[in-house]
Amino acid sequence: MIYLITGGSGFIGSHLVERLLRNGHSVINVDNFDDFYSYQIKIKNTLESIDKISDFEFSDKKADIQYLASLSHSDQYSLYYQDIRDKEGLENIFRNHSIDMVIHLAALAGVRPSIERPLEYEEVNVRGTMNLWELCRDFNIKKFICASSSSVYGNNEKVPFAETDNVDNPISPYAATKKCGEILGHAYHHLYHIDMIQLRFFTVYGPRQRPDLAIHKFTKLISEGVEIPFYGDGTTARDYTYIDDIIDGITKSVLYLENNSNVYEILNLGENQVITLKEMVATIEKTLNMTAFRKILPMQPGDVTKTNADITKAKALIGYKPDTNFQNGIKKFVEWFLRKRQ
Question: In whole angstroms, what is the distance from residue 30 CA to residue 189 CA?
């Protein structure tokens, strides 16, 4: 099978690329190496995902990415430095490859930044996604997996969150763009018979996690003896999901799409294990054997108080079975973090 993966040099994407290549498939990685965080991290992700660990000598962004693309190009893997907002550039990629399925992970992420830059979030997360659907229509590609988010649930009072819950009240532009993607996706499924699964990811963590996300950021700051930003009273809670379990959910969704037709489904991918902010920090402290210095701050606009995934549907439909508890997941992450810091 030939899979086009958008955002294949990011946190989740690079792990998915690695899994699919290991399973003998071909991958086309489309990534714009956005400066949301260092492009150098994405280059390292890419090298790890294609098993080309090396001491990459960085110079200029464009030259570095072009060199990476030439270094990594093979019959089984191709890398394109491409923004999904550029439909013409995407079209050239679709024209040059026989694509069996699109797995769309690329997005502008983050609740708080979306409040500051809502129009840019709309351009990438809505228009960019529509460009992909338009090209799937034009090139007769009938299988599509799309990354949604637990953010669509907003401050849902019913827990755990189920796919049938009302999600008409997002509390950030980021969440609104993800809900919009689900609605537009259904329109493309209905009109053009594109089989589709929308995956609502619940707070993914693990090796290669973005450095701006809480677990990575807190681990770094605690290990350096620097105070951490601690929002609220510590009772906010998240359904943290380890990266290996997310990749398992994506690959099982891929198999389901390959073996079924007339599909439009929304699935929660979480652990169904809720961890408070206080518990998360305490677990990192225990794993590092260090004490965190907390800077108490007010709750931030757009932040939800709790997420909790009902994964009954994913278990029944695709055989999703997360098996990494939070303590073991943090242990694996900290081991990776300390190893990479050396």
Answer: 23
**Catalytic pick from 174, 205, 242, 256?**
174
* Cβ neighbours around 330 below 10 Å, total: 24
- Give residue 141's region: left, alpha or beta (phi > 0; psi -120 to 50): beta
CATH number of the domain at 2-204+243-272+309-322, please?
3.40.50.720
Residue-wise pLDDT for 4-61, tens only, equals: 999 999 999 999 999 999 999 999 999 999 887 789 999 999 999 998 877 778 888 9
CA–CA distance, 132 with 184 (Å, rounded to integer): 12
Q: Do residues 260 and 327 touch, judged by C-beta distance below 8 A?
A: no
The domain locations on the chain are 2-204+243-272+309-322
Kindly state the helix (H) or strand (E) to which residue 214 belongs, with its residue range. Answer: helix 214-223
Q: What phi and psi, each to the nearest 5 degrees, are found at residue 149?
A: -155, 150
- Tens digit of each residue's pLDDT (9 = 90 or more) over 102-134: 999 999 998 889 999 999 999 999 999 999 999
Contact residues for 331 (Cβ-Cβ < 8 A; gap 6+): 287
Q: Would the pTM of this model clear 0.85, i.e. be above it?
A: yes
User: Helix or strand or coil: residue 320?
Assistant: coil
Cβ burial, residue 188 (10 Å; 0-12/13-18/19+): buried
Active site residue 80: no
Of 243, 329, 197, the C-alpha closest to 19 is 243
Rounded Cα distance, 214 and 277, in Å: 10
pLDDT, tens only, 248-262: 999 999 999 999 999
**b/e code 229-245 from CB counts within 10 Å (16+ = b):** ebbeebebbbbbbbbbb
